[in-house]
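User: two proteins, same treatment. go.

Assistant:
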Amino acid sequence: ILFALVIILLFIIKDFFYSRLQQLNSYTQIIESFLKVIDSKDHYTEGHCERVAKYTYHLCDEMDLSWAKSEKIISVAKIHDIGKIYVDDDILRSSDKLSEQEYQEIKRHTEYGYQLLKDIDILNKELDVIKYHHERWDGRGYPEGLKGKEIPVGARILTACDSLDVMITGRTYKPPMTKEEIIEEFKKCAGGQFDPEIAEKMIKLIRDGYFDDKFKSEEKIRKLELSLEY
């Protein structure tokens, strides 16, 4: 039933709202309603896109990008996982190791999201951020295996912010990491998964305490979970 409602909403947006959307903010409000559906499908990623957008704001600021450029990247960060609407609930919620077929389906969410939103003129070329946010600096990412600066800067920023949230909050297959562990992970993956310059900027933000509230929040949750086990 939930999936059917999502499909109906998709058709409503494509047929009714697309031709009428003039402002990015009004568009984002509509898309955020879809993010609530994504959150309801997968408890472990609830609030993920909103947190990633906040990290993106700080990273864009640290990189001295213009506000016009930053605003577009931040707005797209809010909806970067919209393509997961098309991914089967059981795959998203699975705590087991995914089969190759299931993994390939997860990987398609970047293309699904891009195809869903590509006709929205107000997003302009920053829509590539959605399509390429799982590319890697070393060329081993997806969907196209882009390398280095072939990857749009917005996508490189989002890769770092998306990964940061996974490190802080953890997943069913990966426990949360400490602040020190995350710094070491960005050092290790600079030049591999991450743009080295962006990794350096992210490490600075972490050391300067920009995300300490997130670390403290996750630490409280972990302590509560441990107390409930005994």
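Protein 2:
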Amino acid sequence: MNDSSHTRIAILLTCFNRRELTLSCLRSLQDQRLPDNACLELVLVDDNSHDGTTEAVRSLWAQASIIRGDGNLYWCGGMRVAWQAAAKTNPGYFLLVNDDTTLLPHAVENLLSIVGPPSSGKIAVAPILDNKTKKLIYGGKYRKYVPVPVHGTPLPCDTFNANCALIPSYVYQRLGILHSAYTHSMGDYDYGFAARRAGFEIIQAGEPLGFCNENSESGSWRDPSLSRSTRLRLLQSPKGLPWREWLDYTRRNEGPLWPVKFVSPILRILLGK
């Protein structure tokens, strides 16, 4: 499976004021059934939480590398900081995980079996189910953001949600980390599309490997119950689709019809949808 006698997997995780969710995620990682020659090393960015997250993580995972943010990193920024720090130790793999996701005990082992050695050109993605409905909510995506189904065998994807994804060192050496253009969202999809353009494979596992709560549209720019002005303001917030970031994303990933994709969120809001 690996190129050496000892396989180090760097867990990349960023968090902000979600102590109990973060701890639940970390406990599920501690419970992983790993191959004998594999070990997990946690690199966590705490983006200035004030709910005791850092202290709780130190108590739970004494060997964790914890980096304190200034409160303005958001998801992509925090993951970039974690990735840069982890890369200095030259692990065989990088495991991107959302702190609201809990993994089944065989999740990492399953992803390792898909990727193969650190010199592999494959990215493995975990299908993630909703905690309540048990429906598939995150994982691999086809080109038009259609979810890749879970049918018992691993399936190829065009991009992915990084709720849980395993990236071997070879892919990192070719692609680097999440693009600096993105503050909060879009970075994982962008990385997936970049990987495919570079000739790498993205494979979704053939079975569900974790659970989390689906992000609600309520109170976001997608919420049709809000006024148009409120939705337009939220669209430009760090957790929305800030226009410069959205412009970069659509130009990089949406082909010759990128202008249509670029204006679609504004049209959706103006039409009250």
